């Protein structure tokens, strides 16, 4: 139950107002999570709940407002609902059989994002068997369709079974380093404890890499940057050194050239996104030396207190302006506020996305490609700025772990 939301498959309910999305979600979870009412538009905001969907595992169920909402506020609610399409691993499109409206309004959006979806025809207990048979005949060409009612426990169990089968065939997130370092291999994790480090704990990418080492039988040695030199003396045959990106230059100067080096951010970028596309973004960054008045979007996946040496708001902009030898127009966004229109930007620089699921990151890369705007990653930018980008990605080109 402590699995981060970013590592859970997101199952999102869509449909018009009052079709029973909230009731279905509550029935599947077995808790009253979403408010239920006969009044249209009861769900006015996105509601999510992380649960254990047995026998599959940890998931997030997400309830959304009706896509047919009206008025000024209604339009804003619809915008929030549409925004969830970027993170949906599996969509449940709910239709009210008694209402007789069988238009699947988001079908093209699902196809555009390659999001698998299930059509749920709900409230089947409110119609006659003859009418239900007519509807089933109408949808007989659809493979992924379920007929359900919250008053029919068998239909809810069937819906859960269909959801689990769909999830089981979805692409699993790749390992962080299990395919880079052999069983019983050795890695050194370099974790500076400066004022940006949370007191009493590690940040999520560091924890996840450490856990991935344990999952794959990889021996890990965790040190601060100031103990790195003695750590190298303690450990023989180190397969990989993984550092916080902001310590790249220092770590590069300390470890022998034959040791492979990368960063937590680059590992996260590879797992959640597309390393090849991010490397193309670095090529675009180089080209900005010849571009007048370049404009760059810096995108963070989480909100946090900004320090005087913040990596996204301070260090990266300073590094880029020094490298390009010119002023750059930087815009900053965080969380779910990824801009819909990217055409004004020359480049997007994204964080490691440890707080996002892979689907969200894949869709953001797609949006950048459609807008013709390259995208790259914090760690790659910092490695490039330190002059060690080739070394930082060498491990991904040379690894041959079975």
Written overview of the protein:
This protein is of the alpha/beta class. It folds into 3 domains: 5-168, P-loop containing nucleotide triphosphate hydrolases (Rossmann fold, 3-Layer(aba) Sandwich), CATH 3.40.50; 186-267, 3-Layer(aba) Sandwich (Rossmann fold); 277-385, Rossmann fold (3-Layer(aba) Sandwich), CATH 3.40.50.11410. The chain is 37% helix and 18% strand. The protein is built from 14 helices and 14 strands. It has helices at residues 21-29, 71-83, 107-112, 129-138, 153-168, 204-215, 228-234, 248-254, 264-272, 275-287, 311-324, 358-371, 378-385, 389-398; strands at 9-15, 47-53, 57-63, 90-96, 117-122, 145-147, 186-190, 219-223, 240-243, 261-263, 295-300, 329-334, 347-350, 375-377. Strands 2-3-1-4-5-6 form a 6-stranded mixed sheet, with helices on one face. A 4-stranded parallel sheet has the order 8-7-9-10, sandwiched between helices. Strand 5, helix 4 and strand 6 form a beta-alpha-beta unit. The longest helix has 16 residues, at 153-168. The radius of gyration is 24 Å and the shape is globular. The two termini are 31 Å apart.
């Amino acid at each position: 139950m402590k699995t981060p939301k970013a590592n859970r498959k997101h199952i999102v309910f869509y449909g018009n107002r009052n079709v029973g999305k909230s009731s279905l979600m509550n029935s599947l979870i077995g808790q009253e999570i979403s408010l239920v009412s006969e009044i249209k538009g009861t769900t006015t905001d996105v509601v999510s709940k992380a649960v254990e969907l047995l026998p599959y595992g940890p998931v997030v169920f997400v309830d959304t407002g009706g896509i047919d909402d009206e008025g000024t506020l209604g339009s804003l609610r619809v915008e929030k609902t549409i925004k969830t399409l970027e993170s949906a691993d599996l969509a449940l499109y709910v239709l009210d059989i008694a209402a007789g409206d069988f238009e699947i309004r988001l079908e093209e959006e699902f196809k555009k994002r390659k999001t698998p979806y299930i059509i749920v025809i709900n409230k089947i207990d409110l119609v006659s068997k003859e009418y239900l048979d007519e509807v089933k005949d109408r949808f007989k060409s659809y493979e992924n369709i379920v007929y359900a009612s919250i008053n029919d426990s068998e239909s809810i169990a069937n819906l859960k079974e269909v959801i689990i089968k769909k999830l089981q065939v979805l692409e699993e997130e790749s390992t962080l380093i299990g395919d880079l370092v052999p069983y019983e291999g050795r890695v050194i994790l370099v974790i500076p404890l400066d004022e940006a480090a949370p007191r009493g704990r590690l940040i999520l990418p560091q924890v996840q890499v450490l856990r991935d080492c344990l999952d794959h039988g990889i021996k890990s040695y965790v040190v601060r940057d100031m103990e790195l030199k003695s750590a190298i003396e303690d450990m023989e045959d180190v397969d990989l050194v993984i550092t916080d990106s902001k310590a790249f230059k220092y770590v590069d100067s300390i470890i022998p050239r034959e040791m492979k080096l990368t960063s937590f951010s680059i590992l996260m970028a590879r797992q959640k996104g597309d390393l090849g596309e991010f490397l193309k973004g670095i090529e675009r960054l180089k080209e900005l030396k010849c571009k007048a008045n370049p404009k760059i979007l810096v995108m963070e996946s989480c909100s946090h207190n900004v320090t005087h040496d913040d990596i996204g708001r301070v260090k990266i902009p300073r590094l880029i302006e020094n490298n390009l030898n010119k002023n750059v127009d930087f815009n900053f966004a965080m969380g779910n506020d990824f801009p819909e229109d990217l055409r004004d930007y020359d480049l997007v620089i994204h964080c490691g996305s440890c707080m996002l699921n892979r689907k969200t990151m894949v869709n953001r890369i797609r949006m950048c490609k459609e807008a013709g705007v390259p995208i790259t990653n914090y760690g790659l930018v910092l490695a490039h700025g330190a002059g060690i980008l080739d070394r930082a990605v060498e491990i991904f080109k040379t690894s041959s772990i079975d």
